Amino acid sequence: MFFFFLLSSLSFKFQDSLALFLILIFLFASLASLNSLSLFGQSMEKANPGVVFEEPLAGLDPSSPPRFIPGKGLYLGAITEKEMGIQTAAATEKEIAPLYVGESQVYRSSWEKSSSFSGQQQGFAYSTSFIDGKDSEKLNIGQRVQVKAKRSGPEAQSYEGKIFSIDKELIAIIGKAEVILQIFDPGHTLQVGDWVNFETTLGLAATWITIPETAILDTASGCFCYVFLGKGHYLRKPIEVAFVSQGVGALKKGLEKGEEVVIQGAKQLWLLELSLSQSGGPSTY
Questions:
Q1: Pick the CATH number of 67-96+206-279 from 2.60.120.200, 3.10.25.10, 2.40.420.20, 1.20.1090.10
Q2: What is the DSSP letter of 40?
Q3: Predicted confidence band of residue 152 (pLDDT cuts 50, 70, 90)
Q4: 91 Cβ partners below 8 Å, 6+ apart?
Q5: What is the pLDDT of residue 37?
Q6: For the whole prediction, is pTM greater than 0.70?
Q7: Averaging pLDDT over each range in 19-23, 42-46, 62-66, 108-112, which range is the top one?
Q8: Which residues pair with 165 in a beta bridge?
Q9: Which strands form 248-253's sheet, in the order they lie side by side?
Q10: What is the CA radius of gyration of the chain?
Q11: What fold characterizes domain 99-201?
């Protein structure tokens, strides 16, 4: 009714039809503009549920497929964990020293008479080996060594021994030192020319954060291990390994005492992570 009244009043004031036509176009354009603004406001209200930056992780029931979220790690259901045979253990503080493992060749048998000139005694076999000059600096004369004969058979015979001498004169020439071992062999079982394996500590023991060697992943991208964060959650962490000795890795950094690491199944987790990161979605193990 308002528009009809307005048009009636305008017809009395304006006799020119062209002016009336322009006014009608202006009025209809204004109404159309108001209507479009109203629709835009309604659409903004409906389309404001919040921005989702990452798909939320579904609740992990036992049959949930493995999932990988960059920066957060792997999420496994209980069935997958069991199929992969995953086992964990806590990182511990332990006093440990590097272990040197080498080979040595017997040049004097234990049946030979004692020599006052060389100090070598009957009842002991003597063997020689050449080791890196830097490693020789961490060994001491009289240090105990464990020796095993390199012979074919079900069980190689073991011997007790010690470092008899360390000759460092050749380090400047070939970069190696000659180490002579004295091996207790009252049964005269070692003969000249026999090869033996030996191992001994390299330097003094110190306290390190340690994990089993099976937890260490030595890859082209560096050394890692998987930390268990509970409820099927596993995160790969970079670690710096000082040395590995007797099946135990001593760490310079990367873990704290008490953190749970995967000691069985770490390699399978690494392969699974690679697969999921490349596919970009959940997968069934």
A1: 2.40.420.20
A2: H
A3: low
A4: 209, 210, 211, 251, 255, 256, 257, 258, 259, 260, 261
A5: 43
A6: no
A7: 108-112
A8: 180
A9: 92-96, 206-212, 248-253, 240-245
A10: 40
A11: Elongation Factor Tu (Ef-tu); domain 3 (2.40.30)
